[in-house]
Design brief:
The complex is a heterotrimer. By secondary structure, chain A is mostly helical. In chain A, 77% of the residues lie in helices and 0% in strands. Chain A contains eleven helices and no strands. The relative contact order of chain A is 0.14. Helices cover 24% and strands 34% of the residues of chain B. Chain B contains nine helices and 20 strands. The longest helix of chain B has 18 residues. Chain B is elongated and about 75 Å long. Chain B starts with 13 loop residues before the first strand and ends with a strand. The N terminus of chain B is likely disordered. Chain C is mostly helical. Chain C has a single domain, classed as MetI-like (MetI-like fold, Orthogonal Bundle), CATH 1.10.3720.10. Chain C contains twelve helices and no strands. The model of chain C has no long low-confidence stretch (mean pLDDT 87). The chains are: A mainly alpha, B alpha+beta, C mainly alpha. Chains in contact: A-B, A-C, B-C.
Chain lengths: 265, 374, 281
């Protein structure tokens, strides 16, 4: 089937091309966008890291994403554990409710949040923004952790308790170590979801807590300048780093579990 | 946590008082009562769904008790969480912590009790030596065979000297030969350390091999409790009779009872003589079953048998088939009133050959047979 | 007699997450819709508002535009994705990983970056125009950006991974021995595809299309940045109502419409995937 591999190759290149082009442009050295650039340099990255407004946006993004990641992962872990081990009715209903933010268009969620944020004077309040981000990243965190915790044998928990461990000790010494790859994964994706979140931040960030994506949005309405390419390349770098971390941590854990049986006999 | 150090296993007397568990309207464990003595090896034996594992889980504290209570050494532990009960527990799938090595697995309960490091090392070493795994201390579960993992589980369950150890079909995943070996080992360890063991299994041979007493469970109820030899020869009903081994059960009607023995009349008119359980009262005309183990029956060729039709410890019949089972020969004999009885004969040399179609006579001693209530 | 509870099973651990949901999602939603709609007065006033909004030219145009674009996007995504997913479902190792890489990287890249990338490509001084001009194919730069086509391209680029992954999952469950059996019976490759493979992949097609369509009708960022003045999707109207005209009641009504359609389609999606799961079991 000759045409298929050719098609796939072209499609694959077309999928990566836009992102690759942005990265290449970011390393260009001119004041206007030109592809391929005549010369290369770190000019626009330097500009990005030197500009106080962009840096403020970066710090804001980092703060909100870190808080959001913490909230989402902690609450998601507890909820996932309750779903996997707890016995209560309406589990399906609660799960559907917790997954709802994934389904509802972000615009509607965002303006509903804005509706209560403005009167409460919480616009630009990082913790509140982080909370709202956590609401929409919770579904992913839940799904990852549900899968992860289902892989922890319940007898291991029972064994720990029967051996005299407290419930907290059981979590600390058995459940969390065994669910660790899932927890890290969930945390990384929660961070990324918040870092990339635009629509909710548009309404809730205001000027005080303008995040990186919001700044890009505002800049794009004015003019498509090269510094945005550098910021975008930076964002791509963050994404790549997160994905790399996730794969690495999962791989190393799998290697640990799959050690070949030694001379056991 | 108040129970920091476990007392040496003086104690371990378990009392189940009418323990019941319901799932919806169904009673999976129905008013189960039992008294287990300190240091006793007590088995809960039954088919799957009999409630034996659920009962164990209630003793352990992993299942809520709906009615009744569990008392250990005169303390009501029914509402006590598992981590406070201080019982060792061994699971069928071993439940070895995969992220800790063997040493840390066995040390786990000692660390939970915050024992000093030196003492932990001594105790873990002793426990590992007891299960002959002392050279495997730095291995992980994925590097161990099933039998080795189970021994780690046992070491872990006894290292903190619990007064009671609960075992939930621990040998179920092992192959036959290994299982027998482990049975002996477990029994030896229990004898040495003196703790009470409550052991759940569906394998009657295993239960009889290891236990001081067995409780046979069916449909959430205890059918019979007793020493293995006793309940094997004196089952209280048909279910127990069949569950513990091959059983011959012939239906009839009580003809008469005379002291410890009685006569059962079959449909064909033939009367069979057997023991009657002293605990039950029998009335003439009552339906009953004649019970005897296949290995207690003897085949006599028709020619040698006496001709009396009134024989009460013999039945005439025709051999249907003979199965070779290795150490025994099993004959299925159709007796005159269209029942089939199984006769087990040791595969000894010099026995008379028996072929299908042969007319034979089955004989027994009346004290080897029992009447069971229908 | 009350049962003796020895087992603390941690069911309460779900409470904080539920609290967050109420605080940050359900609460605001309920307040938003209730306050804006109830502040209209009684039911007749409410009905009047709804009618006014829904029948207004801006909204009707936007609704039609939204569905049209969503349909185009879904179709385009389907056609592009199908061969990709087929390739992935029938390859393993390096080839599979490479294609997966090409799907995953855009998927996880921020939507604003992806949209920006296409703006860079399609702009007046963008890449495509520069290349075509330097090749001498055109003299005047093409108006590629701020058109409906640009919006469709941008949305296709963002939504492609959803369809590919859905189709891949569906195709992976197709038993290859069925194809072999059909060929063994003498059927040609196109016939086998038409009568055996495609029907078996159909539930993936339907699921994927539903997901893409549902996501597409709620799109805001891409059409806002890449569309022209006449390319207004409903989500943009909602945003404008809140940010610019401060017309909260109007925003509420439009949101309700969008929400209703979204939930209705999700109900269909849920049914379709559930049924297939049962049939596949």
């Amino acid at each position: 089937m000759r045409p298929l591999p050719t098609y796939v190759a072209i499609a694959g290149l077309l999928l990566l091309a836009p992102i690759a082009i942005v990265i290449v442009l970011a390393f260009g050295d001119q004041s206007a966008l030109k592809f391929p650039p005549d010369s290369y340099g770190l000019r626009w990255f330097t500009a990005f890291f030197a500009d106080s407004r962009w840096q403020k946006a970066l710090r804001s993004s980092l703060l909100v994403a870190s808080l959001s990641c913490l909230i989402s992962t902690a609450l998601g872990f507890m909820a996932a554990y309750a779903m996997v081990r707890g016995r209560f009715g309406a589990k399906k209903l609660m799960l559907s409710m917790l997954l709802m933010p994934m389904i509802i268009p972000h615009v509607i969620t965002a303006i509903a949040m804005y509706f209560v944020t403005a009167p409460l004077k919480l616009v630009g309040q990082p913790l509140w923004i982080a909370l709202c981000h956590a609401v929409v990243s919770l579904p992913i965190v839940l799904l990852i952790l549900l899968s992860s915790l289902q892989g922890v044998d319940v007898n291991l928990e029972r064994a720990a308790l029967s051996l005299g461990s407290s419930r907290l000790g059981m979590f600390r010494r058995v459940v969390i170590p065994l669910a660790w790859p899932g927890i890290v994964s969930a945390a990384l994706f929660a961070f990324l979801a918040s870092f990339d979140e635009l629509v909710i931040s548009l309404f809730l960030a205001g000027v005080r807590a303008e995040t990186l994506p919001v700044r890009i949005w505002n800049s794009l309405h004015l003019q498509v300048e090269p510094i945005i390419a550098a910021v975008s390349a930076f964002l791509i770098g963050v994404t790549a780093l997160v994905l790399l971390l996730d794969v690495t941590i999962r791989r190393s854990r799998q290697l640990m579990i799959k050690l070949p049986a030694g001379d056991a006999r | 946590m108040t129970s920091d150090r476990q007392a040496a296993p003086a104690g371990g007397r378990i009392e189940l008082r009418s323990v019941t568990k319901r799932y919806g309207r169904e009673r999976v464990v129905d008013a189960v009562s039992a008294l287990i003595q300190p240091g006793e090896f007590f088995s809960l034996l039954g088919p799957s769904g009999s409630g034996k594992t659920t009962t164990l889980m209630m003793i352990a504290g992993f299942a809520d008790i709906d009615e009744g209570s569990v008392w250990v050494d005169a303390q009501d532990l029914s509402s006590s969480p598992p981590q406070r009960r201080g019982f060792g527990m061994v699971f069928q799938n071993y439940a070895i912590f995969p992220h800790l090595d063997v040493f840390e697995n066995v040390a786990f309960p000692l660390r939970a009790r915050r024992l000093p490091e030196a003492e932990i090392r001594t105790r873990v070493q002793a426990a590992l030596e007891l299960v002959r795994l002392d050279r495997f201390a730095d291995r992980f579960s994925r590097q161990l065979s099933g039998g080795q993992q189970q021994r780690v589980a046992i070491a872990r369950a006894i290292v903190f000297q619990p007064r009671v150890v609960l075992m939930d079909e621990p040998l179920g995943a092992l192959d036959k030969n290994l299982r027998y070996q482990m049975q002996v080992e477990i029994k030896q360890i229990q004898r040495r350390l003196g703790m009470t063991v409550v052991y759940v299994t569906h394998d009657q041979e295993e239960a009889m091999n290891m236990s001081d007493r067995i409780a046979i469970m069916n449909n959430g109820r205890i059918e019979q409790v007793g020493e293995p030899a006793f309940i094997y020869e004196n089952p209280s009903n048909e279910f127990v009779a069949r569950f513990l081994g091959e059983a011959n059960l012939v239906k009839g009607v009580v003809d008469s009872v005379d002291g410890p023995f009685g006569l059962l009349r079959l449909a064909s008119g033939q009367r069979l003589r057997a023991r009657v359980a002293a605990s039950s009262a029998w009335q003439a005309g009552e339906a009953a079953s004649f019970f005897i183990r296949p290995e207690r029956l003897v085949l006599i060729s028709d020619a040698q048998a006496p001709a009396h039709e009134t024989q009460t410890e013999q039945l005439r019949g025709k051999v249907l088939r003979t199965s070779f089972l290795g150490n025994i020969l099993r004959h299925d004999v159709e007796v005159d009133d269209a029942a089939v009885m199984t006769v087990d004969e040791p595969n000894a040399s010099g026995r008379a050959p028996v072929a299908a179609g042969d007319r034979v006579c089955i004989a027994w001693r009346s004290q080897d047979a029992v009447f069971l209530k229908a | 007699m009350a049962s003796k509870r020895a087992v603390a099973d941690g069911s309460w651990l779900i409470a904080p997450a539920l609290a967050l949901l109420v605080l940050g999602f359900i609460g605001p939603m309920v307040l938003f819709f209730a306050r804006t709609l109830i502040s209209q007065g009684g039911l007749p006033e409410l009905a009047a508002l709804v009618t006014k909004v829904v029948t207004s030219e801006a909204v009707t145009t936007a609704l039609i535009k939204t569905q049209w674009i969503a349909l185009l996007v879904t179709l385009a995504v389907l056609l592009i994705s199908y061969p990709l997913a087929y390739y992935m479902a029938n390859r393993s190792g390096l080839k599979f990983t490479l294609v997966l890489f090409c799907i995953i990287v855009p998927y996880f890249t921020s939507i604003i970056v992806r949209t920006y990338a296409w703006m860079v490509l399609l702009g007046r001084n963008g890449l495509i125009n520069q290349t075509l001009t330097s090749l001498g194919w055109i003299t005047e730069p093409l108006e590629l950006l701020y058109t409906e086509t640009a919006v469709v391209i941008g949305m296709v680029y963002v939504l492609l991974p959803y369809m590919v992954l859905t189709l891949y999952a569906a195709m992976k469950s197709i038993d290859p021995s069925l194809m072999r059996a059909a060929r063994g019976l003498g059927a040609g490759p196109f016939y086998v595809f038409r009568r055996v493979y495609f029907p078996l992949s159909l539930h993936g097609v339907i699921s994927g299309s539903l997901i893409v369509f549902i996501l597409a009708i709620g799109f805001f960022i891409t059409p806002a940045l890449m569309g022209g003045p006449s390319d207004v999707m409903i989500a943009m109207l909602i945003e404008r109502a809140v940010e610019i005209t401060l017309d909260w009641p109007g925003a509420a009504v439009m949101s309700l419409v969008l929400l209703a359609v979204t939930l209705a389609l999700y109900a269909v999606y849920y049914r379709v995937t559930d049924v297939r799961r049962m049939m596949g079991a």
